[in-house]
Amino acid sequence: MIARPAGPAGRLIVALDVPGAARAAALAAQVAPHAALVKLGLELFCAEGPAAMAPVAARAPVFLDLKLHDIPNTVAGAVRSLAPLGAAMLTVHAGGGPAMIAAAREAAEAVGAARPLILAVTVLTSMDESALAATGVAGGAASQVLRLARMAMAAGADGLVCSPREVAPIRDALGEAPALVVPGIRPAGAALGDQSRVATPEEAVRDGADWIVVGRPVTGAADPAAAARAITESLGR
Ligand code: C5P
Fold first, then answer.
1. CATH code at 78?
2. How far apart are CA 183 and CA 164, in angstroms?
3. Residue with CA at minimum distance from ligand 1 atom 14
4. Structural domain boundaries, residue 115
5. pTM of the predicted model, to two decimals?
């Protein structure tokens, strides 16, 4: 099981949102000296299947961000099927409920000491108040995030994926228990892309993030290795 970083080093996760395992593996090789993990998501996994993992995992530990959400038995089966790929982190939707999260954790435990961390995704940041209301959730995102975060941790999640603005409230409510993995990060001066509410790497870690997820500011840089190194160095190494 990957250890939570104790100091400033080992906090950068580079999101490899690129088409094709070959490109992802090439980027992983470039950033690996300066990143703790790389993140692979649904687009690549759906296009190329589990075979996309091996060439990337050979270069860096992998956060496999598939956001599983189904009945407990099916999610447990998916975690068992994914286990041989060797991901260091897997995501499930907290909205799947406590039994689903517990089943994911139990299936991960069966892997043994090298098991992946089970991270719960609370409210997608694409969901605004009216979208939440349309799904029957009244009261806004902030309270729903904390409700789901508490439930997910009680059910056995190792941690949570959350936006920078949720880090401090989650730490206030749940203390040090959850591993917090935080996307929506932009080094000062970097292009926002489609991210609207962002924090710098330093701000997110100061608020209590364990790991930060950065994609395009690294993968779109002329020199991805240098971009990753600059982020890691900004955290003090
Ligand atoms: O390129 P960028 O740094 O915006 O990439 C961030 C990564 O984190 C993407 O893979 C994106 O899907 C993911 N993510 C996010 N916001 C969330 C959850 C995941 O940006 N709330």
1. 3.20.20.70
2. 7
3. 183
4. 8-235
5. 0.96
